[in-house]
């Protein structure tokens, strides 16, 4: 790295780890080892969203960087993560190296991000997965706050995280499900009444989910969208089922919120929640629980939810969670307060205020249905979209992008699990022992619907092999 380039770099570990955005590929240096993930860890959008990258990508990046720092061959060289000046690549690259500091180095979110506080231009905020105008920006720091909190409350321990099971179950053809609160709340896409959906793709039916849920300790299914299957298909297998419908793309009213919290607070087992796509309405209600019972801040929760399950929390639901934060914190504090009547008049007044607390009325925007939003999101996940850098223009069939086919994954000796995406390799990639300056992307081969693995047979080997791992994804 030249003196000029070094001056532009942000030092994260003195004389050891750096981050820099460059207009050109850096020159070879005996003093510095350069690497880039711009074309190896790629977020495929639902619409105009571009990140943050999901939890498996964060995990694999941390493993890769940890290995570089421990590599004896690189002991005397600076490790430099460089990215392009593309605003989206730049934000994702910064998020990853900040995540490394939080997860591996044990820094607080504020400390991890402090080196970037005065960066110019500022990082492009992440936006939601709707196709409308962006009205809410999620920051890199918000995402770090979410990771920090998830570690603090014991949700995420990277030494126990089962990345292969996470990648398997998040795939559409394997159920499209993610733990948001490990072993308590699972978000998943709405089951299909038939083994094939309206577009001819294999689909998960309630019967396909039943054995997976039972082995994971899930005892209750909550449906938030219109009825598309007979609830008895869960009830007949010993799973409880509740309907709490509200409009697609909207925010829950006071009655829905009160019913949801009462039901889940009374349920001893884990709970699987779905709307149409398992993203907006699902993530919003789980977020209210997290704020009430675990003291989460709304912005940090949205960051965590999107890292766990990309595309979550949509449109007015974002600001709604922020507006509900104080109410949920107060409700949680009231629950945790000893039941004896408060002796201090001020405490008594506060207790009475909390008891009388009523949730604010929804705004007009929060009540409006985004007609077809769920169908659009499900379609975006099912369709194999063109991916940048791929000679075949083949993308992942999931919206959350595990990075299958990336030379980064192959180098980590953690083979991707499941079907639907080809695994490639690129000898020129720095993650495959090639030039540390190569910015490459391996081809991904798209599969037609007839070649994709189907969930019609609940005993198919690929599902049975990993089904038991759903419960242990965060405690492997």
From TrEMBL:
Residue spans of biased composition, Low complexity class: 386-400, 426-441
EC number: 3.1.3.48
Annotated segments matching region Disordered: 361-476
One term of GO molecular function: protein tyrosine phosphatase activity
One Pfam family, short name: Tc-R-P
Tyrosine specific protein phosphatases domain mapped to chain residues: 258-320
Keyword set, alphabetical order: Hydrolase, Protein phosphatase
PROSITE patterns noted in UniProt: TYR_PHOSPHATASE_1, TYR_PHOSPHATASE_2, TYR_PHOSPHATASE_DUAL
Domain Tyrosine-protein phosphatase: 176-333
EC category: hydrolase
PANTHER family linked: TYROSINE SPECIFIC PROTEIN PHOSPHATASE AND DUAL SPECIFICITY PROTEIN PHOSPHATASE
UniProt family annotation: Belongs to the protein-tyrosine phosphatase family. Non-receptor class CDC14 subfamily.
Protein name in the entry: protein-tyrosine-phosphatase
Gene source species: Polarella glacialis (Dinoflagellate)
